[in-house]
Model the fold of this input.
Amino acid sequence: MNRIQLHKRVNKKLAKTKQLILNSFERTLTLLELNPYLGDLIPRKNISKKVILFYSTNKLFRLPLTNYWRLVYTVIKDENKTVVLILEFFNHKDYNKRFGYK
Done:
């Protein structure tokens, strides 16, 4: 069984989102429980050293949410389990800024 774990910053942002985005987020979590590798792997050329230090990993996945929001997560494999760690979610503008898209 896979486990979903939210990073502390994600919990604070959840309270501020609209219901539509929250519903999309919940649907996405359900899909990630079934397939942790559902998202697209963010190309390493788009991940700055600052971002790697911020998240403590360079293996980042992204999934689109409703209204052009993006969910960023990583997958941690252990001997007996796979853990999906939700790192952050962004609106389109902030996502592009963080990962250097224009």
Remarks:
- The mean pLDDT is 85.
- The chain has four helices and five strands.
- The two ends are 38 Å apart (CA to CA).
